Amino acid sequence: MRDRSIWRCQQCGFASPKPGTCPDCKRAAGELVALVEERVAPPPAARRAALAQSRPRPLRDIAMERSDRIRTGIGELDRVLGGGVVPGSLVLIGGDPGIGKSTLLLQTARALAATAPPVLYVSAEESAAQVKLRAERLGIGGDGLLLWAENDLAQVQAELDSVKPRALVIDSIQTVFLPELESAPGSVAQVRECGARLMTLAKGRDMAAFLVGHVTKEGALAGPRVLEHLVDTVLYFEGEQHHAYRVLRAVKNRFGSTNEIGVFQMADRGLVEVKNPSGFFLAERPKDAPGSVIVAGLEGTRPLLLELQALVAPASFGTPRRTVLGADYNRVCLLLAVLEKRAGVPLASQDVFVNVAGGGRVVEPAADLGVVVAAASSYMDRPVRGDVVVVGEVGLTGEVRAVTGLMARLSEAAQLGFSEAVVPQSNLIDGPRLPLQAHGVATVQAALDALLG
Ligand code: TYD
Ligand code: MG
User: Could you list the residue range(s) of the whole structural domain that residue 11 is in?
Assistant: First the structure.
């Protein structure tokens, strides 16, 4: 085989046998993105031989691989991974710069070094001294933990034979490179090839590998979306820079469920697990304040109580403003329209601000009713009683629709001392006994009558 060239888009990874511009990016964003030439070397002899050996086999002849998970010792991380990390798996951890990815992985490396040494931490972004400084801050001694500031992945590969790590951390995939490729570190070609190389290494050595990936402002893993398809598990580490709370979310997991979350708090000496996130979010809740409503959310299998706040105030001039933090803007606008039309709350001349307290985020429709009630409560300047939680999806005709996992939501609320709940009427038919007093409502109007009198 000879070397050949392909032309690749550096934004979305589109590959073409000819030079030109990217049709995908043009279609999506209307912009012309020039394709960049990449030399493609033939696969090395070893890989060709491995490919030739592999043959289809009957399903019953295939031996089950025992994948004993290694518990990292960080409970919130284990939960998101599905009960620990699987040897031979590749885990990508994405997140904004500065959110705490390096901190999380250094703490993970320390924990793994205790249960599955040795662990190799390759820092391609910071010098060994910088990482050491962070380790000092976290109080990490370093038994069984090897640190290496290196960004040439071929060197790392060569060293694996003598170190024989059971877990490998690459911080970050955008700064390591393979010298045989001509493109710069961080380009699509490099990231893709480095990812594929690490996958082969992890699988071949039964070594768990963690990769850090930076996320662009738009929320995509920068440039190389291809990596998401390649790896076994994709976790996102998110939160507000100026809030202490951080959420680790699984968006893909070949060895566990997605939509599971782990909650951490960034403290002075590293990330601390938050075992009781609801308590954390409700800690500063005002009592009997108009516009404040507690919603019982569910993240994966985990109930999470959050405080929704709304402030409705007369607009001084022009088009009234709608500002939303921690929830979907369009969804909130829709709910405000429902509130106006179906419950007669005149919001057309009002500014509306909606916020999830403590830097939290609501994604599920079960929080709809909470948004509606919070806005109405603020408009009427009438508080919702402090010991009531609200759950329910709201439809365009003002109906309140059933939600999933009502029992889990209400059990969490009961544990935190709530004694009453306003829930969708349709959820109450033939249900098991609920842990607190539930009041079923079928419409937004009925919910407002029940909560605001
Ligand atoms: P870092 O892990 O470097 O983020 P990333 O690798 O995602 O870019 O963490 C950066 C932030 O975390 C930085 O602003 C300082 C803060 N931090 C703490 O608040 N406490 C700590 O113990 C540590 C190590 C960092
Ligand atoms: Mg970092």
Answer: 4-40
